[in-house]
Design brief:
The chain has 327 residues and is α/β, with parallel strands linked by helices. The chain is built from 8 helices and 8 strands, in the order H-H-H-E-E-E-H-E-H-E-E-H-E-H-E-H. Strands 1-2-4-3-5-8-6-7 form an 8-stranded mixed β-sheet, sandwiched between helices.
């Protein structure tokens, strides 16, 4: 009887050890890497102007309001043209368009994207005008930079229902076209709902059991990936941390965990590409998620500017191929 009890205890201990090792693998945050440039000063006022134009002046941007969706696409195109880019409009499904600009390098491609539509009934300031604003200021910075790899900045359409996680989602259309052409996409970075932060205890929630390993204050930006993308996500996070002191957390886990694939990076996983999401964690933190109250006054523009500055360092690092896995 004692032997059975002892064997049972050993088995239970081994299971707990394996579970602990698995959770460590998913949740561990790498040390900062080496700074390769002076982090740029990103204008909080410029970010505010983008969000105001999209979520304040235009408002709800969805397939149910095609006129507003077209105005949002025009706004993004005009900003990119003013930055000196050639804007390419591409089929995004259902008569809507993805917009793309590129900073040319070699045949290896880094895609940085954000969806510009909003959910029906919401002006979508944080979800997802905040991320589009960050995308536009990232492209502004890289308009004056040279990288080894080609950088593509893409504004995706139709991320929200009724197209969410369907073949008609704008990023699914784009990723499928990349695969059909044989594009050598080394990683895709999805910018998603990036502008709400709080130091209040209990302001951050998680699916069980992740709350045991992460802070309960929603004052950080999160890098989220599947297991295949863990290496490049960690390299990007190391570069981000080298160029910004903004709090950052990361997780590489199963796509089945609720929320893990809830943005355009999931479309690239579907095509077998590496991809990760940069987010404030959206419904796990933001009380105005998918609500009519998701208005421009809710976005923390100073925090978003600090995050975008760090992302400049992260994108430059992987754009130069520093520490980026092949394949």
């Amino acid at each position: 009887m004692k032997l059975i009890t002892r064997n049972g205890a050993l088995r239970a201990g081994a299971i707990l050890l394996v579970l602990a090792a698995g959770l460590w693998y998913m949740c561990v945050r790498p040390d900062p890497g080496q700074r390769i440039m002076t982090p740029p000063v990103i204008s909080a006022d410029a970010l505010r102007a983008h969000v105001q134009a999209l979520a304040g002046d235009i408002g709800e941007r969805s397939v149910f309001r095609p006129g507003s969706l077209a105005l949002a696409a025009d706004y993004i195109e005009n900003v990119w043209r003013a930055q000196g880019y050639h804007v390419v409009r591409q089929d995004g499904g259902d008569g809507c368009e993805n917009l793309e600009v590129a900073r040319p390098g070699n045949s290896e491609i880094i895609v940085i994207g954000a969806h510009y539509d909003s959910v029906a009934g919401s002006p979508g300031a944080n979800d997802n005008a905040s991320a589009v604003a960050s995308l536009l200021e990232l492209s502004r910075f890289f308009a004056g930079q040279t990288t080894k790899r080609t950088l593509r900045f893409v504004a995706f359409v139709n991320e929200e229902p009724p197209f969410f996680k369907t073949p008609r989602q704008g990023s699914r259309v784009y990723a499928r076209a990349c695969r059909e052409r044989g594009d050598d996409v080394r990683v895709m970075i999805a910018l998603e709902t990036m502008g709400w932060y709080s130091d209040a205890p209990g302001s951050q929630r998680y699916p069980f059991p992740f709350g045991l390993f992460y802070p309960n204050r929603g004052n950080f930006i999160a890098f989220i990936s599947n297991f295949k993308s863990r290496g490049v996500m960690h390299e990007a996070l190391r570069a981000f941390a080298a160029h910004s002191d903004f709090p950052v957390e990361c997780c590489a886990t199963f796509a089945s965990v609720p929320g893990i694939d809830w943005s355009d990076h999931g479309s690239f996983w579907h095509e077998g590409y590496r991809a990760f999401m940069v987010t404030d964690t959206a419904p796990y933190r933001y009380p105005h998620y998918h609500e009519a109250t998701d208005t421009p006054d809710k976005v923390d523009y100073k925090a978003l500017a600090r995050v975008t500055s760090g992302l400049c360092g992260a994108v430059l690092s992987i754009g130069q191929g520093l520490g980026l896995p092949g394949g």
